[in-house]
Amino acid sequence: MKTGEGKTLVATMPSFLNALEPSEEWLNLAENRFGSDRDKWIFEPFELRNSSGVLERIVPFGKGVHIITVNDYLARRDRDWMGPIHEFLGLRVGVLQNMMEYDERKAAYLCDITYGTNSEFGFDYLRDNMVTDINHCVQRGLNYAIIDEVDSILIDEARTPLIISGPAEDSTEKYYKINKFIPRLKRGEIIEDDGDRLEALLMKKEKKTTGDFVVDEKTKTVILTEDGIKKFEQWLGVPNLYDNSHFHLVHHINQGLRAHNLFQLDRDYIVKDGEVLIVDEFTGRIMDGRRYSDGLHQALEAKENVQIKRENQTLATITLQNYFRMYNKLSGMTGTALTEAVEFDKIYKLDVVVIPTNEPMIRVDYPDVIFKTEREKFQAIIEEIKEMHKFGRPILVGTVSIEKSERISKMLEKSGIAHNVLNAKYHEKEAEIIARAGQFNGVTIATNMAGRGTDIKLGDGTIKCERDTDGKLKCCAYCTAKNCAQCYHEKKEDCMAAVQCGLHIIGSERHESRRIDNQLRGRSGRQGDPGSSRFFVSLEDDLMRLFGSDKMKKILEFIGVQEGERIENVQLSKQIEKAQRRVEEYNFERRKHLLEYDDVNNKQRQIIYKQRRDVLELKNLSDLIREMAENMIELKIDEFCPEKTDRYEWDIKTLNI
């Protein structure tokens, strides 16, 4: 279902229907209390009290419905918007938010319908399987889930497992020590790349690299060369870095190299109040409470010279794929799932069904504009903003990082254009900025935060158009009673199709995934409104630099592109799309391998969690402990005193009986 078509509202129907499915426990209690005649039943939760009249627990009517969104803001918003509908129909609606206390979480899960983010539901599942008292569990089963922006959660977020960790005993001093040496290393490159992966090249121990380390940005790996190893052995005073007693240092060195060469401030993370906070690459939001594992977060803290927190050890983990596959019924909504239909079918057994738009889509998506350098591209973006700003059109500029959003902001300040910036640093003002983004003359610079779930309402003076004194057409106030003032079209629809008013989208570069680009475009042209979009691309962008084919470079060389010259070519746009497809295929393989690896762990995890819950649910553990003790005694006797051997061969001393 295309963006802006009302997915949030549509979700109320299946959520209401599935919330009416009664739980087995409730049915048993109802039959005992009301008898077998269901016409006399009262369909509401049971409050179970002890002999003293104290409330012990509540048994909800239904099995529960979970509606999953991509962030806390949308979960809270959707609950506030749709909650009154469900409550009018007699259902109870709750919402999960980050940093909620136990009692609030428990109450939210006891509701018929619960809104929350994928991470909140997933982490609650892991925490429930770590409790020592069954009454401290908050979830009550995984019955039915509706995932809003399902492609973001089940595909984009699938590469990052959910991890609950605890402090390890390792010292933090080594991170400062290693960080001190890394800037002294020289970055090298692979001289003879015969197509093998970086790791394979180095495993052959062939002299195909220069410098002290090499970086493969495609696979996001950094590996020391022979020269780099020798330098670290000298600096750290160890004879052999790969000796068993020193091998742990190699891991910390590699993480330090990754922190310095693959992770950028204001792109992958920010530093706020002396803390390194992760920025979600898909949503542009701060991932509160999340830390990189395996010492990477500590390496970033050393790099930014902030206090290093102790390294964590994993206590519980699960991938989002395996978590959501545990639901009895799973469904989802998004405007950008068609490109990933194969993955939805193979991994989740979900069919992708396309719902046509309610009103015709009249947004115009212009061909990409391509430049040689990033500097030329950003200057062209500013010129486009100036041109659109003359006519009062609201403009949304999408960027891939905080750093680039602030770069465009500074350029606009120099040009004297008032604007708002929406990124992880200013997330508190999100609702206010979004509310103004569609107003006359509004200019908004945003990261991916504005790409999903944000509904930008067009204000007065942004939809229709009129003829200016110089003969050009410009936007004017929307009027349902008559056509545009002095417009040469007879019908309002013809006018809207001919002149692109409404919200103008500018993409500052192409994302790795076409879906992310389509989400940005989808902020404009909603519900039949006019709008337009254009992406600006340079050969220095990450996508083009890492995955762009030589064919595109040859086309530009053949055309003879000069500095500052802009190229709009359908064939070049197709080459960009091919590059995105290559990245999507590569990422699909990574997700598939991650799932295959976690499937092995998942079988063990489910067995252990079931045994653990069985123990917690027992009211008397003495019989279980006695049985375990007897089994252990039998095993030890069979081990040291085998029945089929002579008694003189028994190892009574080791048995210690």
Could you please describe the fold and organization of this structure?
The chain has 657 residues and is an alpha/beta fold. It folds into four domains: 7-21 and 62-165 and 320-348, Rossmann fold, CATH 3.40.50.300; 169-310, Pre-protein croslinking domain of SecA, CATH 3.90.1440; 364-463 and 501-576, P-loop containing nucleotide triphosphate hydrolases (Rossmann fold, 3-Layer(aba) Sandwich); 622-655. Helices cover 41% and strands 15% of the residues. The protein contains 24 helices and 22 strands. The strands form seven sheets. Strands 14, 15, 16, 17, 18, 21 and 22 form a seven-stranded parallel sheet that branches. Strands 4-5-3-6-13 form a five-stranded parallel sheet, sandwiched between helices. Strands 1-2 form a two-stranded antiparallel sheet. β21, α19 (514-521) and β22 form a beta-alpha-beta unit. α11 packs across α12 (296-303) and α15 crosses α16 (402-415). It is globular. The model is unreliable at 464-469 and 471-489 (pLDDT under 50).
CATH superfamily caption of the largest domain = P-loop containing nucleotide triphosphate hydrolases
What is the tally of helical segments?
24
Mean pLDDT: 83
End-to-end distance: 71 Å
Structural class: alpha/beta
> Total strand count, please?
22
Named at the architecture level, the CATH assignment of the largest domain is 3-Layer(aba) Sandwich
CATH class of the largest domain: Alpha Beta
Gyration radius (Cα, Å) is 30 Å
As residue ranges, the low-confidence spans are 464-469, 471-489
Biggest β-sheet strands, sense, barrel: 7 strands, parallel
Query: Per the principal axes of the C-alpha atoms, what is the gross shape?
Result: globular
Find the CATH topology of the largest domain. Rossmann fold
Helix content: 40-55%
Strand % is: 5-15%
Number of domains: 4
